Amino acid sequence: MRLRHIIPSLLVLAACSTQVPDTSLALDNTPNIFPDYTDVTVPSNIAPLNFRIQENADRFITVMSAGAEKMVTRGDKVIIPANKWNRLKEHGTVSVQVYAFSNGSWSGYKPFSFTISDEIDPYISYRIIMPSIESYERLSINQRDLTSFKEKTIYANQMVQDASNGQCINCHHYRNYTTHNMQFHARQFKGGTIMVIDGELRKVNLKTDSTISAGVYPAWHPTHDYIAYSTNKTHQSIRSIDHNRVEVADEESDLILYDIRNNSVSIIENDSSQFECFPSWSPDGRMLYYVSAYYDAPFGEKRKDQVFINSKDIKYDLYCKPFDPDTRTWGESVLLYDCSAQGMSATLPRVSPDGRMLLFSMAPYGVFHIWHRESDLWMMDLKDNSVRKLDEINSPEVESYHSWSSNGKWVIFSTRREDGAYTRLYIAHFEKDGSFSKPFALPQRNPDFNKSFLYSYNIPEFMKEPVHISPQQFASFISNIDATPSSYESKRGK
Amino acid sequence: MTKVIRNGQKALPEWVMKLIPFILALALWCTLTFREQYFLKKVEDLSVFLFDKQFILESLRIPGGILGLAGSFLTQFLHFPWFGALIWVSLLLLAYFLTIRTFRIPSSMSALALIPVALLVIGNMSLGYGVFIMRFQDHFFSPVLGYLAALIPLGVINRSRNFLSKIVFTAIWFIAGYPIIGVYAITGAIAAACAELSDSESLRKQRFTLLLFTLALAVLVPIVIYPLYTSYRLTDSWTLGLPSISEATLTRTVRAPFMLALLCQILFGSARGKLSAVSLSAARKTTVQSVLLIVSVASVWGFWFKDDNFRTELSMTDAVDRYDWSEVVRIYTKAADVHSKSDAKAYASRTKKLSQAKSKDEISAIVDSYSKRFFEPTRTMVMYRDLALLKTGRALDEAFTMMDGGRPQKTRYQVPMAYQSGKQFYFQYGLENMCYRWCMEDIIEHGWSFSTLKYMVEYAILTGEYSLATKHIDKLSKTLFYRKWARSRSELVSAPESIAHTKPYKGILPYLCFEDNMSNDMGKTELYVMNHFLNDRTRNATVQYNRAALLFAMRTQSIPKFWECLINYIGSSNDIHSLPRSVQEAALLYRSLEKTGVELIYDNSVKEGLDSFNKYVSSHPIRDMKESLYPFRLKFGKTFQYYYYFIRNLHTY
């Protein structure tokens, strides 16, 4: 073999190896990667942040380093082995440098870093659903191990429904982040509220003659055996040309309290001129936060249509209501934040585990913000009731359902920022100064997963442990057990 | 069995019987390619196969999923109907010969193998409108692939002489086969055990043991495997892999032919020992073969869905999806022309019968019985035609000169127009969110398809949601036959300024001049579209929008709406002097009826036309509208007055 053949071959070999380039042109921008993990703060127990480099070049070399640990990968798809990732994370900050080879020379992008921070609850659960309008052929509530990429189904409606009888499942919820006490709703076929009470399954019909519907949005009391629910008569309509495709609105909406031990419900709020919704407890269980909108229209056949006609005028304010769990008595409701006065509408109040911060989403109108592109996350400091829009984590698209981790260091929220239609989960670190770090997408084994996956995630909830009941146990129980009717108790306290 | 010999009677020559399956296959291929090409294209259009890891993993979430994946893979070749049909017919031919070989069917009864094959053909070709509501879009190829796969245990177990190896193979077959091919693994194993039972070579005890073992596994394996899956009910475990529809009763109907084909395998298996020993006389041989052949072919023909309107709808859909508007109109016109002879024949025959009728009831009965023999388009055909005429600006000139009507779908699978062509209509009329809605509903009920992916891309480009468009373009770029299309859309997304000048968006943008409102179509696309144009508020309505509104006002035969829309149309077109003839006819008719409305300058021929119509009506009194429909159509079918008086009370879909 002649020299003129050998040299190019060696050059090719060198170029194809994972050798870090000795010299490169320094670029002043970080590379465009998907998901955007540049300069994010991540939990110390999170799964590897695999990503794809979205730049035009012939070849890529990525160098990750932390302390003495170093990992070099080749190609635009950066997959980090779990053991390597764990070693890198131990050093607190992982520095990432991407080199690109094009036009015969190497360029080095501006390095970025992963800052390793507090632990996060090891599990989350969410519902997998198509971004659909009415049909719900395939729904499942899944749990994901955040320390790895393992995902399991908690329950899927296809395990019970048949070709003619559909079943909708929604509103999975846990008591204090543990799964020995949890609930979700199964609607229509074989329907009922499915509860796990101290590990035992129960199926309850929360609809009584004195309430407008079965329980809908739940809030499990942190210390006592109560669950606050909203009760709603909800309808959906389609906007013909608006960029918000769908409108979901309540014709009626109240709050009830379910007493688990007595299997009874009582009214919390049922003002006929108010739509009370989305209850959420303070960590000590002595305050119930919720949203409510004033709507005073006559009841009757036309009310449903009227609600949609007036939909842009229905604005929800933030309220709180004191509660004594020992005596089960309520105090007077207090207007916490007058959103409507500012032409806005709040939903989904969620209090941080230390009881200090109230996170909620807000849009110009309505209560079902997953269909409102203007919806953003806002936060109220309950110490001084100051309110702030969380610009550091919001996007031009929807930010909606959000949950605090059990240590209050992280929030997970659903957003449609990637394409405007498919809801994805993002996590952000709550900093000591009350701000949030740059949010990062839930890590996936395949970095292209979010682009490829044609389902939405919704209702992300943190869990300290996985659900122990198998999907088959849930399915068998739901199929074979009829819902126990709950009884109605008249209101106690004011 | 007794061998019967009758002198003087000849059997069919051997080579004839060998040739028959090939002749039948050729006939089937020709019919599929030249007569059912749009049905095959629609099957492909409603299916999807992506060279994508996510897509492949998704198919593994149910036993039988890999069979479905293989079915989807082959379905994409129906993109070229001749080629897809060739694959399918070849598989059917293979099923025929393997059935003969596996069940040792003697040549004297080889036509017996036509029965399961005929059932497989019936299963697909009886579907008709059902194709729009199938749950899994691999249904065209999966049954024949499943049928072939189910023959594997028969072949393997039969070759094995060792009892233990038969038991081991059966166990492995169930454990490995059930997750891959679902119910076909079960029926194949049962057929194999039955075949063993009917064979006299092995020990009787062993044969029964194998059958009991197989039946036990058939019950137990799906139960044991069930906890590995979360996507179906335990009770459905023994039907997984079979086609289904989003309604329980119809699912049984759809599955029946395929289940019968599998039953044939079990029956043939049970009779295998006896079948191979059958010896017939030449005469009986001929009779048996002929009867089996005739029954099979007649059954296929009898169950074949042969509705002309359905075929026309499919070919029109194909043209609509290509935005070939002149082709849409041409297909419609041709469909009406093709039937002109048969209509004339039916009219002559009916006239003869009516002349002999004595009572009013008898007349009415004759008219009713003949009404289905006259050609009448479906609402989908009319809607497609109107859409095409609107897109080419010819709607007000030509829509009412063409045949109209509202023949219901001739099928047990009643498919809402929204599922059949909702996304097309809503997209083309600029009802963006309704287009999204029906793409999504379709996806949820029936799975992703090339068609929904394409319309999701089109929707997102129209609304300027380029990230969303790119997501679905990426999916289509992972297909064999839509890559080029995906590339063209990708180029548009990267140069959005050209969208407004590009087909089809250019023809849709003039319709986007209405104000947002909230509503629900309740699955009735035609009604929703008409109400939208007639009732929704607009901002600076374009002439195209007002033209459509006027067309739909004339369709609804609402006189106040007509005047309202006419004024709007004249206002935007600035042309009162050359109004289309149908519009003049409607205006003249309505003014003569209600003495109100706008006074127009009418062409003389329009006035003469109405006079002529009125004179004809007075000289030919109408005793039954249905009876007079055809003669009036011949004479006045191209006038609005005919439409107004004779095309009434149509059901909207």
CATH class of the largest domain in chain A: Mainly Beta
Separation of the first and last Cα atoms of chain B: 60 Å
Total of DSSP H or I helical runs spanning 4+ residues of chain A: 5
Tell me the count of domains of chain B: 2
Largest pleated sheet of chain B: none
Number of strands of chain B: 1
Description of the structure:
The complex is a heterodimer of chains A (494) and B (653). Chain A has 494 residues and is mainly beta. Chain A folds into 2 domains: 15-117, Immunoglobulins (Immunoglobulin-like); 123-484, 6 Propeller (Neuraminidase). In chain A, the strands form 8 sheets. In chain A, strands 1, 3, 5, 6, 8, 9 and 10 form a 7-stranded mixed sheet that branches. Chain A has a 5-stranded mixed sheet with strand order 14-15-16-17-36, with helices on one face. The radius of gyration of chain A is 25 Å and the shape is globular. Chain A starts with a helix and ends in a 5-residue tail after the last strand. Residues 6-16 of chain A have low confidence and may be disordered. Chain B is an all-alpha fold and 653 residues long. Helix content of chain B is 67%, strand content 0%. In chain B, α7 (142-150) runs parallel beside α10 and α21 packs antiparallel against α22. At the A-B interface, β13, β19, α4 and α5 of A face α12, α22, α24 and β1 of B.
